[in-house]
Amino acid sequence: MIDLTDIHVDGPAGPLLRKTSLSLAAGERVGIVGESGSGKTLLALSMMGMVSDQLTVGGAISVEGRDMTNAVEADWRHLRARRLSMVFQEPMSALNPLRRVGDTVAAPLIRHQGYTREQARARALSLFEETGITDPERRLSQYPHQLSGGQRQRVLIALALACDPALLIADEPTSALDAEVALRITDLLVRLSRERNMALLFISHDLAAVSRTTERIIVMYGGDIMETGPTRAIMQAPHHPYTKGLLAARPKLWAPILSTHGKRRLPTIPGSVPPPQDLPRGCRFAGRCPVEMAHCATERPALIHTATGTAACHRQTADGAGGQS
Amino acid sequence: MSQTQGTAHPILSVEQVTRRYRLPRTTLFGEAPVLTAVKGISFSIGIGETLGIVGESGSGKSTLARLVMGFEQPDEGVVRFDGYDLARLTPAAFRIARRGFQMVFQDPNGSLDPRRTVGWSIAEPLRAQSVPLSEHPARVAEVLEQVGLRPDYAKRFPHEFSGGQRQRIAIARAIVMRPRLLVADEAVSALDVSVQAQILNLLMDLQDELGLAIMFISHDLAVISSICDRMIVMRHGEVLEEGPVPTVISAPRHAYTQALLSAARLED
User: Fold this and answer.
1) Across-strand partners of B79?
2) pLDDT (tens digit, 9 = 90+) per residue, B34-87?
3) Nearest-CA distance from B241 to chain A in Å?
4) CB distance from A268 to chain B under 8 Å?
5) So what's the pLDDT on residue B5?
6) Domain boundaries, given as residue ranges, for chain A
7) What is the spatial distance between Cα A173 and Cα A91, in angstroms, rounded to a whole number?
8) Quick one: which of B213, B226, B234, B202 has its CA closest to B108?
9) Which DSSP state fits B159?
10) Given an 8 Å threshold on Cβ–Cβ distance, is B226 in contact with A257?
11) Residues of B near A (CB-CB distance < 8 A)?
C-alpha cells in the first residue's frame, strides 16, 4: 500500500531520521514505538509529504503504486484529501472552536468530493455513528468545547475517515485521554481498520497502547530503527537491548506483590537521550547500552533478521555468527 | 511540636473534607449549579509513608491536592499537617508550617522561570521563607546533587535541559526547604517511559534519605502500584476503596477498582 525506500531526513545540525525502509500492506496495523526525539513522528510526516521545508528529505516513496518521490505539494494535497489521513494527540487544537463539529466533518466532503450540503451532512452523521459518537444527530450541531476529550477524538477520527483513506496515521491519539477512554479509542481504531481494510499506523511512546492495537511493531531510537517484529514477539521476547530496557522500565501492576521486601526500584536505562548532534555515529544507543562492544559507537549496525523480525544490533551479528549465546 | 515518630501520629490527616465549586449559570435566572469536587473525604499519611491516589480526570484528585497544599480552603472538614488545622493558622504560622510540605506538578516548566537560572528558581522557596542569602548557594548545590544533577547546573537556564532533567530540577526546588511531605500530582505522567522510571526511583531514593512522606496522585495504576505503600481509589469526588497496595491490587472490593485493574492488566 505504501512503500518507503531509504527514506531519510536531515536537519541543519545533522541527520534526524536515518535511512529507513518500510512498507505497509493494505489493512495492516503497524505500531511505531519510541521516546521523544526518536524520529517516529518525522517518519510519519514523511509518509504524508508533510515534513517541514526547513528539513531535507531523501529516498523514495510510493503510495498505492504511485511514485511520490518527486511529487510537488499539489500532488500530496490531492493524496491527503483522498487516500491518507492523520489523527493527532490533542483533539482540542485540531478542531476549529468556532465551527460546529458536523460542519468541520462535512467541509472536506463538499470541497474534495463534490457532495451537496445535505449529502455531506448525512455522510457526517453516518461517520459519527460509525465512530461511536453518542447522540450523533445532536452532536453535529455542537461546538468542540461542548464535547468531552474522548468524544472530540472520535470527531477527529470521523473527520479522518471522511475521505475513505487507505492509510490512517494516528500520532499519539490516546496520550491526552484517561485510561478507560483511551482503551475504547484504540478498540475503535482496530475495528475501523478491520471493517474498512484500512492500514493503520499507530505512533506512540506507550508500548501498552501500541501492543493492544497493532500486529507489527517498529521500535525507534535517536532517529533510527532499532528493532521490528510481530507485536507479540516484541513484547514477550525482544532482541534489541533498547527494547529490552524499555520493556523492563515500565511499571508493572504485579511488581509490588512480587517484591514486598527490600528496596523497590524500577530497572532503568542509564543516562538520557543526547541531543541529535551528539548522537553516536554508530549505533544510536551506544553510550547507554548495557551490552555495548568496542565498535558499537562508530559502526552503524544493519537491520538483520532475528528469529521473529529484524534488529539493528552488533550483538545479534556477533552472537549469531559465533553461535554462542 | 508533636514530632513523635511512627505512624501513630500522621504527618497529614484529612478529615471529612468537602469542597464545592459554583459553576456558571446555564440559564439567565436559574440557580447556578454546584459541583461537589470532593465529598467528605478522610485519610491520613504517616511519616515516611507513600500514599497513592488513583482516579480519572474529574475524580477530584487534583482538588484534593490543592486543599492539602492550602491553595484552597475546604467548605467542610479539616486538613491537619503535623496536627495543626491549616485553616486556623495565622498567616505567619501558616508560612512556617508551609516549609513542611511542597508540591511537584506534571509540567515542570510551571515552576521554572525561563528567564532565570535554575539555581534562582530552586532558591525561590528559600527567599520566600527568608533563609539567609549566604546559605542559598550551598543549599541549591546540595539539592541538585540529591536529584542526580551536577551542582554547576545552577548557573544554566531551563531551556538547556531535557524534560526529565527539568522534572529533577522541579523536585530539587520542592525539597530545598527539607519538607516532610511531598505532594506529587501526575509528576511522571508527561515523561517518556525510561525517564519515568528514573524519576520514580529518584522519589523513592529521596524518601529513604530524607524520610519524606509522599502523596502520589496519578491516573496510572501501574505507577501507583510500583511505588506506593497504601492507595486510595477515587471517583466523582468520593473514596471508593482504600488499603495497602498489594491488597487492593490482588483483591479489589469495588467494581470500579476491578474495572481499572482489568484495563491495566490488558496492557501487560
Assistant:
1) B14
2) 889 999 999 999 999 999 999 887 889 889 999 999 999 999 999 999 999 999
3) 17
4) yes
5) 39
6) 2-221
7) 8
8) B202
9) G
10) no
11) 56-57, 162-165, 192-198, 200-201, 204, 208, 219-223, 225-227, 245-246, 249-250, 259-261, 263-268
> What architecture is the A2-221 domain classified under in CATH?
3-Layer(aba) Sandwich (3.40)
The answer to whether the CB atoms of B194 and A268 lie below 8 A apart is yes
Q: Which three cell numbers stand for residue B47?
A: 511519616
Query: Among candidates A239, A267, A259, A131, which has minimal Cα distance to A189?
Result: A131
% of chain A exceeding 70 in pLDDT: 94
CB contact under 8 A, B259 and A265: no
Task: Give the separation between CA A162 and CA A147, rounded to whole angstroms.
Answer: 20
ipTM: 0.81
Domain ranges of chain B: 12-266
Residues of A in contact with B57 (CB under 8 A): 149, 178
Angle between helices A101-113 and A117-130 (to 10 degrees): 120
Which CATH architecture describes the domain B12-266? 3-Layer(aba) Sandwich (3.40)
Q: What is the mean pLDDT of residues B198-206?
A: 90
Compute, in degrees rounded to 10, the torsion defined by CA atoms B191, B41, B59, A255: 40
> Considering CB atoms only, which of B164, B201, B267 is closest to A212?
B267
A179·B225 Cβ contact <8 A: no
Residue A206 contacts residue A174 (beta carbons within 8 Å):
yes
pLDDT of residue B261: 86
What are the distances in angstroms from CA B237 to CA B35, B103, B268? 10, 21, 29
Other C-beta atoms closer than 10 Å to the C-beta of B190 total 16
Nearest to B184 by CA among B105, B127, B77: B105
Asked if the Cβ–Cβ distance from A264 to B204 is below 8 Å, we say yes
On chain A, the residues whose CB falls within 8 A of the CB of B208 are 263
Distance CA A210, CA A204 (A): 7
A324 at B interface, C-beta within 8 A: no
For residue B268, the model assigns a pLDDT of 55
Residue B25, pLDDT score: 77
Residue B181, pLDDT above cutoff 70: yes
Average pLDDT of the segment spanning B235-244: 94
- The per-residue pLDDT for A324 is 35
Give me the residue from B193, B208, B261 closest to A35, CB to CB.
B193
Count CA within 13 A, CB hemisphere, residue A74.
0
Residue B26 to residue B21: CA distance in whole angstroms:
15
Residues A249, B226: C-beta atoms closer than 8 Å: no
pLDDT computed for residue B118 by the predictor: 95
Partners of B227 on chain A (C-beta within 8 Å) are: 251, 264
Instruction: Nearest by CB to A249, from B163, B194, B245: name it.
Output: B194
Q: Which three cell numbers stand for residue A293?
A: 562492544
- Reported as a single tens digit per residue, the pLDDT across A214-260 is 999 999 999 999 999 999 999 999 999 999 999 999 888 866 555 54
Q: Tell me if A263 and B263 make a contact (CB, 8 A cut-off).
A: no
